[in-house]
Every structure is written in C-alpha cells, then in structure tokens.
Amino acid sequence: MSHKSDKLAALAALKRARQGVPREYKEEDDVAIYDEVSEEQYKKIVKGRLQRDDFVEDDGVDGYADNGMEDWSGGEEGNFYSDEEMEEEKKKNKAKKKKAKDSGKSKSKAKPPPPPAVAPSFNDYRKKVTADQENDFMSNIFGELDAIPTKAPVASTSRKRKTSPDTSYNRSDNSSPVPYRSLPADNSSDGLDEFFTSAVPSSDDLDFSSPRKRVKTETSETDEGGLTPATQRLAQVNSFDDIDMDAFMSTDDDDISDHADVQVKPDIKPSNEPTFNAQPSWLAIYDSLSVSNTEDPSLGSLSTSTASSSVKHSDIDALETDGSLHFFWIDYLEHQGELFFVGKLKDKSTGAWISCCVTVKNLERNLFVLSRQKRAEKGEGDDEWYDTDEVPEITDVYSDFDAIRSRRGIKKFKGKFVDREYAFGDPDVPRGKTKWMKVAYAFTDKEIPSDAQSPNIAKIFGTNTSAFELLVLKRKIMGPCWIQIKNPEIDNRGVSWCKLEVIVEDPKDFNPFPDSDDNAPKDTPPLNIMSLSIRTIVNHRENKREVVCVTARTWRDMVIEGTTPPEQLPCTVQTFVRPLDRFPPGFESTAKANAKGLISPMKNERMLLNTLLVAIHKTDPDIIVGHDFLGVSLDVLLHRMRDLKADHWSRIGRFRRSAWPRIGKQGTNIRFLSGRMLCDLSSDAAKSMITSITWSLTEMCKSQLRSDREEIDPDDTASYFDGSIANPDRLMTFVRHCELDAHYHMAIASKVQILPLTKQLTVLAGNSWNKTLNGGRAERNEYILLHEFHRLKFICPDKSWGKKSVVKAEPIEDDPEALKDALKGKGGKKDKYKGGLVLDPRKGLWNSYVLVMDFNSLYPSIIQEYNIDFTTIDKSEVEEIDAGEEGQLALPGSEVPQGVLPRIIATLVNRRKQVKSLMKDRSATAAQLLQWDIKQKAYKLTANSMYGCLGFEYSRFYARQLAALTTHMGREILQHTKELAESMQLDVLYGDTDSLFVNSNATELSEALRISSEFALVVNKRYRKLEIDLDAIFQRLLLLQKKKYAAVKVEAEGETSIEVKGLDMKRREYCQLSKNVSQYVLGRILSGEATEIVVEQIHDYLTSVGENVRGGTCPLDEYVINKRLGKNPEDYPKAEGQPHVQVALKMKAKGGNARAGDIIPYVFCLPEGQEPSKTTQSDRARHRDEVRRGGSGLKIDAEYYLSQQILPPVQRLCEEIEGIDRAHLAECLGLDVNKYRAIYSAGPSEEHIFASFDSLKSDKERYKDVDLFNVKCKNCKSTFAFQPLNNVDCCLRPEGALCPACNAPLLRPSLQVQMETQIRKQLSLFYERWVICSDPTCGFRTRTMGVYGRACLRPGCTNKVAFEYSDEKMYTQLRYYAYLFDGARAVKNAAGTAELESIEALAARHSELMRQMSSCAKKYLDEYAWRWVDMNNLFGTLRLK
C-alpha cells in the first residue's frame, strides 16, 4: 500500500506543478549500492570467482587481466592518489570554481577555451571504404567460409581465469616501453612538445616478432632475485593442475618483452601480405648514381636553429682593387620602387662562389607626354574632349602636368622637351618625329594613370613601365650577365638570405661589361642546382594534403654548359620523411645505413618542413628543378608551412619575409621563390622543348632517358607507411623511389639542355632568365624590340593586361564590302586574319618518289624580302588587305631604308650561319660543339618567333595589319610556286603554308634529286631573301586529307623511316592499343606489297586483335586514353558528357589535383556483369590508377575500344585502299556487321539503314554526298559551285547575282537552263539502273538482273547486289536543288545568329529569283513518286467497327 500511495502522491505533485505551484525538494534515504563484507568474506568471494571459467580472454601483461578483484581506480589509467592528495585536489577544484565565478561577474560570459586539436590517426590517411565495397568484401569472406568443409567438434578442456603478472616483472631496457594501443601517436602536424618527444621510442627498439601471437617462454621456477613468479603465487590461492601452462602462456600479446634469459621462438603465421624481398628493376639505376659523402661539412648540422650560415659577411672579400664589384645576376625582385638583383660572385679569400643581393636605389620613372595639336575642353554633361582653335604652348603642357602630379601627391619631378618617334598602332598619336615632354620622378611616388589627360595633354606613355624594364633598357643589360658595380656599399641589413648584401645608390653605377673589354669575365659562374621531389598524402578527415617525404638532390658549383651528365657528377642527397603514426621497426637503422644519401626520419610534418627549409638555406640553391612543382608541389608546401607556422618559411626563396602574403591560385605562386630560379619540367617553356604526349614524368623518362619509371599509386601511399609491418623494406622502397625521381628531374633537364638554351634565349632577348624558364616567349620577343626601339629613340607602346575589349562594328547597308564581312560572320571580329594557304590534296596512295619542297623560314624571310615593319609601312594603307585582297598592296619601295624588324631577323640569321660554320670545324671539342649547337638553336627559335609578336593579340607590338600582309604574301608565293611547278610539267599533289608536295613521277632516286635541284634553282631566282629547298623525299605517300598523311621517308645512305602527320595515331585521345593497331595497318599499306596480300594481312591481324581485347590479354596501359583539360574541371558548364572532365572531378573529390592544362589519363571499363547499354560513356570512364588497383572489380569495355578506338582510325587509313570496307573491318573485330555495312552501303545498298531520322539530320549531313549545282559564267567562262544562301561564298549579293571570279551578273534564264540540264542528267543516270555487288572485294557491276533477284551474278560470290543510283539518292538530289533556293529555310537556319538580318535582307532582295529557281526543282520533285505515300492503299481495307 505504501508503494501505491507514493505513486499517488507523486502524481498529485506533478498536477500541482502543472498548475503553477512550486515543487518542493524532499530528501530521500540513501539506497545501498554496494554490499558491505569483511576482509575474510571478500577473500572467499575472490576465490570463488577464480574457480569459475574465464569470461574474458587475457589481453596482455599491461592490459586488462582479470584476477577476480574489483577495479577501484575510478576508470582513470595511471592516476593513483592518496587520501591527502585527493583532499588537495578537491580544494584546488573549489578554488578554480570560485575564481571562475568571480571572473564571471566582471565579464558577461567568458568564452570556453578551444578544445585541443585531435591528432589524426593512421586511418585518417587511408582511403575511405564505401558501404558497397564493405559488403562485397564481407560477401567474399563468407563465401570462402561456406566453401570450407565442416569438421566434427573437438572436446576442449575448461580454461580457468588468467591472472595479472606481478608488478615486479622486470623489463629489459631494450623492450618497448609503451604498447602500441597506448602510444599517444604524434600524427598531428603541430609537432610534439619537448616533454613528450623524449619519451617516443625508436622503432628500432620495438619487438614485432609476432604481432598477433605471444611467444612461448621458458623460465625457471624462481628468478635470480628470489622473487616467486606471479603464476606460482596465484597457484597458492587455488590449484591449477588441470591447466596446460604452455597453452596458458601462448596468449596474444603485442607488448611482450625480451628477458636476458628468455629464448624467443617466433611463431610466424602464413600471411597474405605481399613480400618485398624482390628488388625492383629501377633500383639498379638508383644504385648506379654518383653521390658524394652524405655528411657534407659544407651543409653543417640540419638543426632548426636560427643560426645563419657558417660564412660570416665580414669574412667575404668581394671587392676589386679599384673598389668595384663584379657580380653575375640571375634573378631580380622589384619592391616598393627598388630593385633587388640576386646573383653570384667569387670570394677572393677562399675562391668559393657565394650568393649576393644587390639593391639598386633611387630609380626614376620616365614618362613621355604628348601635347595636343589644339587645346581641348570638356563638353557639358559628358567626358568627351572637344578641340578649340588655340594652340597650346610648352608652358601650358608643363603646367597641366604639374597639376596632374600634384593631385597624385608626387612631390617633385624633372621635365624637358625632346624629339622622339612613334610608329605603332595608336591612331591618335602622330607618326614620325615629334616633340615630347620627357618627365622623370621617383619610383617611390605613386603611379600616374595611363589614361590621364588635360586640356593641353593628349597622351602619356610610360606610366606603368616597370623599374626592371626601364633599368635594363637604359643600362643595356641583355639578360643574365656580368655587372660592374661602382661605388658599392656593403650593408648586410638582412633583406635577403644571401651571403652578401650590397647597396647601389646611383643606378648609373650598375652597368654590364662592354663586349670590347677583354679583361671582363665571360663565363657563366657555376651554380647550385637543387632537384626537389615531394611526396604528399591526403588527410581524409581534414581534406588536406600533407607532406610525408621530400628529397633534395643538390649539385654544387655545377657548370650548366658542361657535357657531363648529372648521374656522373657528385651530388648530395638529403631525404626527410615522417611517419603517419610510427615508423616500421628497424627503419631508422636501415635509413642510417643507406649509402646513396642521407635519410633523416622526422617526428612530424612541422619538423620535416623546418629541416627542409634549413637544408635549402644552407645549400643555397640558385635553381630549383622539379616536375609539376609550380602547379602542385609548391602549392602544398606553402599551405602546409603556413598552417603549421614553419620557422623562417621565406627561406624557400632568397628574400626574408615575416608576414605571410596571400597565397594565390594554384600555379601562380612563383613569387614566393624570388631569388631562386625555377626549372619546372611541366611549364610551357619546357613543353616547347620536350617532345611528349602527356608530359608526365613516367613518359618523359621513357622518351628522353630510355628508362622505365615505376609509378606509385597515390592512394597506396598510406600502405607504405604502415607501422605494423614487420620490416622497413616497403617504406625504404618508397623513399628510394622519391630519391630517384629527384635524379630524373635533373637528368631530363640536362638531356634537353633546358638551362643553357633558356639562358642563351634570354641573352638574345634581354629579359629575365626566370621568365624564359617559365614560358615567357611573348615577353622575349617584346624585349628584343624594346631594346632596339629604345636605342633608336622611339616611343614604345605601354604594356596592357587583362582581356581586350572587342568593339563590334555595325555593317553599313550601302557598303557592299561591310555587308560581305557580315555575311561571313566577321562582324565585330576585325582582329582575325587569314593564315597560310592549304591546297586541296589529291588523295590516294602514291608509289613514285614525291619531293617535299619547303621554303626556309617563310614568314621571317617574307618580312626581309618585302621590308615589312612598323617604320616602313603605314598601317592605314594595309587596312583593306584582309577584306578584299584584290587591290594593289602598298609594299615599301626599294628606296625605303631597312626596317627594325627585318634588320633584327637578318642579324639573327647571319649569326646563326656563322655559328653553324664553326660547328664544321673537325678540331672542335665536345664542349664547344655543344655550346655552338645551343647558340644556333637559340638564334633559330628567336628569328622564327619574331613574326609571332605581330599576330599575338596580347603583345604590346600587336599589329594585325602587318601580320595579315605577311600571311597574304605567303599565300601568293605558294600559289605562284605551284603554278611554276605545273608549267615545268610537274604534278603538285598537296601544299601547306610553306611547302609543296611534288610528284616527280620518277622511280629512281637520282632522277628525283635532279628534278628537285632544277625546280629549286628556278624558284630561288625569283627572290632575294626567300629560298626553297628539298626538305624530304618520300618513297611512298598515303595522302588522306589536309594536314593528314603518312609516308616512307628516304633517309641518308638509302635507309627509310615512316613519317606521320596529323593522323589519329598522333593524337593523345587515342589509346596506345589503337596506335599500335594503326601503326601495323599503316606499315602494311606502305609496304609496297600487292593489294590482295595487304588486305588479307590486315583482316587477319584485326581478327586477332578483336580476340585479344575480348580475352583480356592486353596490358592495362594500352587502354589508357589521355585528354587535356581546356579549363578547370569545375568550370565546364556541361561536364556530364565529357569523360575526362568527370574523371578530373572525381580526382579532386578525393583530394587530388586537376586544373586547366593537365593531361587526364582514363580508361573505359565496366563493373563485373554490367552491360554498356545501361551506362553512359562518361560513367564508364575511370582513372588509370583506379582500374590498376587490385580488387576494383572493373573490366575493360571491349566493345567501346573495338568500335570507337580501333575501327574508326583503321577505317580512315584504309579509305583509299581497294578491297577494304568498314563492314569487313567490323566483322574482323567481331562487331555487328549489319550496323556498319548499312553505314558503308548508303549508296549502293538497299538494305535497311540504322541511322537517325531524316528530320533530325542537319542540312550539311543530309546533302554531304550530292552532286553540286555547277554554274558556268558566260563572261569569264569559269565554273563554280552554287552555294546556299547561308554560305559565305554564295554568289547572291546585295548588288545581285554575281560571278565570284569576274563580278559579272548572272542572268536568271541562264541559271534556269543550267539547272534543267543538270537535273535531266541526274535522271538519265538514275534510269540506267546499274547494280553493284555489296562486297567491295567483288565489285561486280552490271545492268542485268539475275533470276535469283538480288544475288550477285559473279560465279562464286554469295553477296547481294543493290542499285548504284538508289531511289533515296535521287530523291535527296532533287531536294538539294530545291534547298539551294529555299529562302525561308535559310532564314530559319540563321535564327539566333549574328547573320540573321543579313540573310533576311538577301532573301528579300532575291525573292523572285529564288521563287522561280525553286519551282523549277520542285516540278521534278512533285513528279517523283518515291516521296509520296498512298495512305488509301495502305489502310483502305481497314474498317472501324
């Protein structure tokens, strides 16, 4: 009853509380939680527990071991307090609470301290496993378990409770002090504190003889100290006679330690883990490298202390006897109006080459102010300037500029009037010599806007000119060279990390040595080059990349023009590696014993980065070499150094910085390396010098070094750092792979001579070496012209940045040429101009010798031949070149002096000839030949690129008119040369820009050579600078399309090689398997064997290819497709249908890198059991590494590769070969023959065509195979194809129907008669009713119909015949004639385009002509029964009920 009453009372209390009555607190009696027993009773309870079976398996000596007693530790490991300590702890807690309460009174709400960052665990670096993958894994396990036969159960003995060891258990000093599970893993990037770092054990001391099984031990009954073992003491509590002590001791324990008198018998279980005893083949290259003593005394200790280099500034003797300083500059930094040049000089006391930073102060801007012809005033309400009749005076211009500079806060300036010339594109600036006001003021003052104007000032040039550009132009500094510094002031104020710092107060004291000075130093000083290889891993929890391993391979005092390869030069190798949780056992000792470099294990990532920065500072490299360093590695380094607050992070460059600047977008942070040059093998400059498809390191090693580089899957990086592996071999393999990559970087750079070649290019241009190394070709051309025009006292255009605005010009209705441009889609795109002339090829296989006659450096030669230059041609005279190209070109006469551009090109060409003549000297050394070869390449590249600055839109010397004039003359020259060849009875097969393919019709090589010599002699007599020469001789030529051909090229001494241009096998989006197949087929075609044999060989080979692809015998690398990202993957508006974009997005989602310009490798594959029809093409694309990884469950999509990667290229190669058709090729590959035969036999076959509906086809596709409507002009007797109204070459113009050749009018009756004639001719061909066999190898053609209907009449042929001129073809032909004059359809096709208004105007202008011509075609179309369907005949018998 009391229990029931308590419930009722509680319910009543709740009701009162609900009504608002306050609740009262009532103390309740304590409930007995524990049973109180005496000591004797407790001992009996413990004995009873120990007599029962164990309920928990023993988990280790120092872990949980049940001895039958309660755990009174309160759940806190390692916290043991006495009663006094507990009381003290309570007092401290009360004091803290009181203090917090008092502080809360003064502050509204105190913020709690942030929780400590959770250190990442090893699993954070593993790739996340999806639920589907986990289910598949468990299914495989259960499937294996089900397959195991069951055994009869074996009776087992009862096992008693295990006991804890005695606390006096003696540990050896070499044992692992902390078990794996209780190690506070230092995976965080923040590093370890000083207290804990000393407690972390070396992996060499850890015993992992059996990670899953405790070793068996044999001990004596008592130890030497007379202490009874814990097992015997516990035996006194109760009897353990029924327990097998050997089995008892063989429990799992990861933390068992070695005793002095313990014999360890490891029990190794069979493991499925791969063994790493087999040495990879690339380790042979690693072992062959020349490495100097790893303990290099010049490097000193790699401590992270802030101590500077061992060389003191006061100990350096750098000055000459006259007090000057000789200094070789290599890089610069412009900051706050001062220039900081970084380079090398020689310490005269030690003879060592050291780095030096020279600060040039007191630099002044040079502005050129153009006065107005007439004083101007601003209009009311707008910003336009309107001229007046007043002529401004010199004092007016001076006063206006004084007002402009005062508004910008410029304190003082100097000004004077000088004579200068202008010859560039600004129409508001007068050409020729003019008076300009030259203004000079300090660079430390603000910049004046480039568009600044005033009533008396029209234009100001030089406002945004950089200090570097101005200094090198005024001091005539041509690239990296020796500088003589007068009055140097040695002041080590610490602006850089260089060994010596110098200040130059007067810029005029900073001058290069003149070429005439014989005592001046000439050679480039030796440089320190560091090749950096960086390995990263994705922290999936933080979604960040972290650095795990870095190798710095350094060549000190290396002569870049030397001929010794880097593998034979001594170098120092430093590798820094850190664990993810801990190193594998024995790694430190193995790393220390490494003979090919110093491997330094680091405790964490921050220590790794700090040590790397120290190594860079002590080595002081002038050049850093890497692969994809700027785009990937540098970005990761910068973010990690900033996040981890690395010490002296600015040591990655050569200038000291304390505050972090903003880190820019990926690939734009080269400024952080200021003072050190970067040679990135994936930069634009390197790609222009290295022939490659993907420019991946693996491919470049194969193509340049003939070395097979093994790739490591980035997703497998965590497995190499697994600390539970019993030996360090796997991690050492990873480290050595990183070290070898550092060698590969330098080996490739040395192979292509990128450093000496870019230096020579920079010397010719007079710009910065670092800009040339990282793809500044346009800047090189600019600086060549800047130096020359500055010498001639010309005002040069200012540099502009950003996207240029295109001004759209509206065509004038009364201007036929403007309307013509609008019809061609040129409205608002005046910056476009025609390129080179490409002649229509005569397709086919040519078996006689073909001569390739090529003009040497066509465009540079044209510039010299016709003296095309800014100074010789007024651009207004060239304005109409690109529009009509019918008028007389205003080329400069012979009396005009040679222009700047022709003179520069002529100088480069002459210097190249001189260098090439030196190379013919048989007594020259290998080093001299190498230097001369580099020079002649630099001259050639520079001369050929000079034309580019005219046509490059973002060049400050951009001149569309001059570029259009140059290409126009190129087209004229090629056309005239073709006509000359035909006049000599030579057959021209093809022509492209600067070359002609001439068929010699000769079967003897000597005869072909004679013909080429005669032809070249005749052509070269026509020109002064232009020269044509024999470029190649083709023994056999397969000409397919424009810019697509393959040939057997005759080499020296009668040898031959295959030359391929523009074919599918040269494109990276075709896999290697496709290229191999195409290569074989091409080899058979060009073999010269009989056609029947070639066809049979190709068919047999394709059959075997189809079987191999379906059988899966081809290696994975042959299926890889490479495609370049045109922009960042997330910037694609429609990424669903683009496989490479989808793969790139997946890469970024996993933490990888993918940006514009990257080559994405992917493979088309399918999951097991899935059909291709159920997925889109993009969904089937997977990254190469994802497919290569074991257990992916993916298989190659054989149907895709056979139908899309192999069949189309092979079919295009065989188009001109008789006896081969697409259907047979598909049949050999095992594809659906009907599908491809229908496509092939669209003309000669009447089978059902599996294609798109006719209504869904475009007009271009629908009428691609029709015969054109050819019109003959009565005036000039020329014949041309009549084009539809939408075509730019349509003869219907606003003035009328005009002949394109002579502009004579075309009369309507003439057009009607010609159309009637051609339609009747087509009808005549149709009614001839020729039939042809569908098998091209048969090709039987007849007008006789056999008794078997469609069967071929040739004996032995079982194929069918079809009409050669089918009903559908006739219908399409008639529709085409009507389509040509369908104005409504032309307007509909132009809807939504810029040409709509023009098309509507033309349709209205010629409406009557088009109506009558259309009715002429429709008359025949309406009579053609094939277009009509008689619905009454089909459905007339049907009746509705």
From TrEMBL:
- Spans of biased composition, class Basic residues? 92-110
Instruction: State the source organism's domain of life.
Output: Eukaryota
Q: Which GO terms describe its cellular component?
A: alpha DNA polymerase:primase complex
Q: Does the keyword Plastid apply?
A: no
Name the SUPFAM superfamilies for this protein: DNA/RNA polymerases, Ribonuclease H-like
Q: Where is the DNA polymerase alpha catalytic subunit N-terminal domain?
A: 11-72
Record-level Gene Ontology MF annotations:
chromatin binding; DNA replication origin binding; DNA-directed DNA polymerase activity; nucleotide binding; single-stranded DNA binding; zinc ion binding
In what residue span(s) does the Zinc finger DNA-directed DNA polymerase family B alpha domain sit? 1257-1435
Biased composition annotated in UniProt, kind: Polar residues: 165-177
The catalytic activity of this protein is classed by the Enzyme Commission as 2.7.7.7
Pfam families hit by this protein: DNA_pol_alpha_N (PF12254), DNA_pol_B (PF00136), DNA_pol_B_exo1 (PF03104), zf-DNA_Pol (PF08996)
Q: Which Gene3D superfamilies match?
A: 2.40.50.730, 3.30.70.2820, 6.10.10.100, DNA Polymerase alpha, zinc finger, DNA polymerase family B, C-terminal domain, Helix hairpin bin, Palm domain of DNA polymerase, Ribonuclease H-like superfamily/Ribonuclease H
Domain DNA-directed DNA polymerase family B exonuclease: start-end pairs: 459-700
| Compartmental location | Nucleus
> Which parts of this chain are annotated as the region Disordered?
56-130, 142-232
Which reaction(s) does its UniProt entry say it catalyses? Answer: DNA(n) + a 2'-deoxyribonucleoside 5'-triphosphate = DNA(n+1) + diphosphate
Q: Which InterPro entries match?
A: DNA-dir_DNA_pol_B, DNA-dir_DNA_pol_B_CS, DNA-dir_DNA_pol_B_exonuc, DNA-dir_DNA_pol_B_multi_dom, DNA/RNA_pol_sf, DNA_pol_a_cat_su_N, DNA_pol_B_thumb, DNA_pol_palm_dom_sf
Q: Does the keyword field hold Transferase? A: yes
Record key words, sorted: DNA replication, DNA-binding, DNA-directed DNA polymerase, Metal-binding, Nucleotidyltransferase, Nucleus, Transferase, Zinc, Zinc-finger
Per the UniProt entry, what is one GO biological process?
A: DNA repair
Q: Which family does it belong to?
A: Belongs to the DNA polymerase type-B family.
Q: What is this protein called?
A: DNA polymerase
**Organism of derivation:** Rhodocollybia butyracea
